[in-house]
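Quick note —
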Amino acid sequence: MKAAVRHVSGHWYDADAGPLVRPYALTGGRTRPGPHGVRFDLIALVVVDADGPDAAAESLLGPEHRALLGLCRSETQSVAELAADADLPVGVVRVLLGDLLEGGHVKVSRPVPPARLPDERILREVIEGLRAL
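Predicted structure written out below.
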């Protein structure tokens, strides 16, 4: 007996199996972004590169790549926000972002590691100095 196929919020679903396009199909079976193995933190910020490829190069991208670019075009987004807004697994978004980064379509700013943040003692001294003014 064939399962019913229905259209829900822009995605096609099979009543028994779930989404008809599996995540590994969206990434070509890849589980890691790019040949350099770039790792995207969930809080890494992604923005469209204004100096990136033109619209013709963008038109050659897949629909998921273009969807991520559209989300980043309106405002800078974190990897976690992109995954939620695109309704894609975070692993898939990381692989797709790796493609976009390698193609020069996006820029990614990584969060500052805690070891590089100013010492709490220094911040307290600055606050005390400002209060003394």
